Amino acid sequence: MSASAEPIGLYLHIPFCEAKCTYCHFAIDPRRPDQDRQERYLQAVIKEMKGAAGGAPAPADTLYFGGGTPSLLAAPRLARLVEAARTLFRLGEDAEITLEANPRDLDYAGYRALREMGVNRLSLGVQSFSDPVLREMGRFHTGSDAALALAAARGAGIENVSVDLILGWPGETSERWRSNVESLTALEPDHVSVYLLEVEGRTLLSHRARQGALLLPPDDLVADLYDETVEALAALGLERYEISNFARPGRESRHNRKYWEDAPFLGFGMAAHSYQDGRRYWNQETYGGYCRALEAGAAAVAGERVLGPRERAGEALFTGLRRRAGIDLPDFRRRYQLDPLTEYAEALRDPLEAGLLEAVEGRLRLTRRGVLVSNEVFRAFV
């Protein structure tokens, strides 16, 4: 691989959770892991990393610990994974290393240990500052735990802290959400992810929805509250740079940008996904299945999908339009040998005429109105 090859991102899936949240549809291992369970998983992940590194991949410039709850994995084991990334994938000292954490899992010493192993970005899964809502979600922390966690992380030297919130929880009201935003802005985070609630997959919320026992807020209310949130965060210096993500200048997620820019990344661990040159592949989605495959000397890959040129271009349009900057049309034409305004002319006509999309100064992007109904726009090419 040449020295000029595009740097890759690394994703490490840590599946352990104390319990499964009522909205969660991710692949997790819902139990607090003992030492043997942690070590078995760690050995499997490192073995998978060594196998992938044998193909002389490009150097990595981001490492993301997702889950699950990575903060449940003992610090010495997390440090071994960081060291494996540095050794096997030439992860540099200036790389972005992100770890997702629950607010109540770590104290100052725990955050200090993360900082010493190289973690320089923290993603706190706050989700809500309302204690009753947190209980409905199946979370074990409180709103005050979130404030304490952010202060402890910064005190330990982690300067880039992101906070996750979920908008549109059942029973959502303007007053409750505005209280959430006030609590959030008081913490002055560096990055915020605001996710609209999705009721899908095999979750407790989905079960309640099928039974007609789930009272979701009106779409118009959620749209208005999203707009208010954009303005409140902008006033704090956090600009929206992607539909769900807001950051202070220079604090944007470098790792997530790879997903939005059709860049290569390698995923390790159960259910982890990888993507390179139009090929997507994913791992076994259970703890036992994943570990047994690696222990038997086999690959953990459960399936793959190779995207054709037009399909790859369509996905690049979908992810690119999620960004506030939108699509650089001349660059897109060079990269994919396709003009989206011509190739998808019929499908894009209505969104353009309705003012949901605009093509200006060589860029195709969502308008402010278009952001609120982005899924309708994306159906044009996915």
Q: List the quaternary state of the chains.
A: single chain
Terminus-to-terminus distance: 32 Å
Most strands sheet: 9 strands, mixed
How many distinct domains?
2
Strand order of the biggest β-sheet: 9-10-8-7-6-5-4-1-11
Instruction: Write the CATH fold name of the largest domain.
Output: TIM Barrel
Give the amount of beta strand, in percent.
15-25%
CATH architecture of the largest domain: Alpha-Beta Barrel
The name of the CATH superfamily of the largest domain reads: Aldolase class I
- The CATH class label of the largest domain is Alpha Beta
The coarse silhouette is: globular
- Helical stretch tally: 16
Judged by helices, strands and strand pairing, the structural class is alpha/beta
